[in-house]
Amino acid sequence: MTTLTGVLALYGLVVMVTILVQVLAAAQKLDLTQLAGNRESLPSLTGLAGRMDKAQMNSVVALALFAPAVLILEARGDIPPVAASLAWIFLLARIAYVVVFALGIPWLRTAVWLVGYIMTFWLYLLAL
């Protein structure tokens, strides 16, 4: 396993933990019948549960964008040394994003989101 795929695996775990935290936060707002049902008529989640819901959805999108960049670089075989640093910065920014989003800090949330987005974009540029 290379550094890039290791970071990808770690980010996969971060996303899974984020989903778990979101479910636990939602369970504080909703009853088991609502959570186990078809979810067609769930009320909007607010507070921590709502923020975690948005954070986990954004985390899944970020994973869907980050993974192909990593896999393309891996398939090429000649991974530029800077790619590992970009991947680590992405991972740290995404962890910070979830924490800052959960805490409800809007401008900092946007800043760390942008860092992760730029790292992903840069990885795609390296993959070209």
Q: Rounded to an integer, what's the Rg over CA atoms?
A: 16 Å
Total domain units: 1
Helix content: over 70%
Strand content: under 5%
Average residue-wise pLDDT: 93
Distance between the termini: 22 Å
Please identify which CATH superfamily we are dealing with: Membrane associated eicosanoid/glutathione metabolism-like domain
Keywords, separated by commas or semicolons:
128 residues; mainly alpha; Four Helix Bundle (Hemerythrin (Met), subunit A); elongated
What does this structure look like?
The model has no long low-confidence stretch (mean pLDDT about 95). The protein has five helices and no strands. It has helices spanning about 5-30, 30-35, 45-75, 80-105, 105-125. Helix 1 packs antiparallel against helix 3 and helix 4 runs antiparallel to helix 5 (about 105-125).
Please specify the SSE layout and strand pairing.
Elements: H1 3-29, H2 32-36, H3 47-76, H4 82-103, H5 106-127
Summarize the structure.
The chain has 128 residues and is mainly alpha-helical.
